[in-house]
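In the current project phase, our protein records have gained a structure token line. A sample record follows, to show the layout:
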Amino acid sequence: MQTTIDCVRWEPLFNQGLIFMTTETIDHSTLARLIENGSVSSTNIVAQPGGWSIQILQGRKECSLAAQRSGQVRLFKRLETLVSYLRGMGISHFNVDASSYDPQQLKTYARPDRAEAMKQAHEAAAYEEWFKRQVQLSIDDPRPSISDEDSRRIFAAKRDALRQRAR
């Protein structure tokens, strides 16, 4: 079974007498099927504001890889990540268009949720280290141990004394 996907829609837009071509997007699984079928004639990596995109040529049809969740054209921040992705898909030959590359436009994403999670992880690790030190200090304490029964009796007496003072 062969899957053919119409990736390009020609829209005659008469802006100063020019015809523009709009590029459609495809997802990861569609790209995998196109590669499996041998339908990919060329692959281009194109610099965009904020990263690198993949453009697949299927005959005369052009498609861009879309991000899974947003459906927008997927941008890779690092060229190395994009190359690894393509090699993992079975594409080892591609063209690179770096004419629009501007390292100043690379976006950095703030992840306050991850920052908070890391802060909590560090606090938990610090607490665990403190707790282990306290346990070890107690084990190493040279004073004689008190039985559970004796300690309950002592603290019951202290509670009673506090209650008497509160009245």
Notes: Confidence is low (pLDDT under 50) at residues 1-22. Residues 48 and 75 are 8 Å apart (CA to CA). The longest strand covers residues 18-26.
